[in-house]
Design brief:
This protein has one helix at about 160; strands at about 20-25, 40-45, 70, 85, 90, 95-100, 105-115, 115-120, 120-125, 135-140, 145. The chain has about 170 residues and is mainly beta. A hairpin with a 5-residue loop joins strand 9 (about 120-125) and strand 10 (about 135-140). It starts with 19 loop residues before the first strand and ends with a helix. Residues about 50-55 have low confidence and may be disordered.
Length: about 170
């Protein structure tokens, strides 16, 4: 207001969009696989979605879709990395196919998984023949790979071929 009534008023403002975060559309139980109809992006001002504290908050739908929940999730809850994991492809006590691959050779056998594992996890498996345990990397549903490295041999000397090197 001025002496003669009204007048122009200059206002300086700092306007920012609220960050978009991934939120649950409805409640989800532990172990639920997230689909596109389970999550949405929502712009909201929350402590976990703020500029300073939201390092673990998911900001894109593809960070959630296809993963499994690690805890029960309520409708409207903001997703962070601790709420999701890669789907379990191998369960404890599953019979798994074990592959040992090296250039030109592929060996396949079966073993029993001694722990759960997701894609890329290193898990313990147990042989059916001698019950020995070893580590294998999860590569698919009920499939694991073991590292099959090449074997180096020493160069042969002329004496070893003639039998003189005894």
């Amino acid at each position: 207001a001025s002496a003669d009534g009204t007048g122009p008023l200059r206002v300086v403002a700092d306007v920012r969009l609220l960050p978009a975060v991934v939120v649950a559309i409805h409640s989800l139980p532990v172990g639920a696989r997230i689909g596109s109809n389970d999550v949405q992006l929502k712009r909201m001002a929350t402590a976990s979605a703020g500029r300073s504290g939201g390092a673990g908050v998911l900001r894109a739908l593809d960070q959630a879709i296809g993963r499994e929940t690690t805890r029960a999730v309520t409708a409207g809850q903001v997703f962070d990395r601790t709420l999701l994991r890669q789907p379990i492809l191998v369960r404890r006590n599953d019979v798994v196919t074990v592959y040992a691959r090296t250039p030109g050779i592929r060996v396949r056998t079966n073993a029993r998984a001694r722990e759960d594992g997701s894609q890329g996890d290193l898990i313990m498996v147990e042989s059916f023949t001698d019950r020995r345990r070893y580590f294998a990397r999860v590569t698919g549903p009920r499939e694991v790979d073991v590292y099959a490295g090449g074997v180096k041999t020493a160069a042969r000397s002329p004496q070893s071929e003639t039998g003189l090197n005894r």
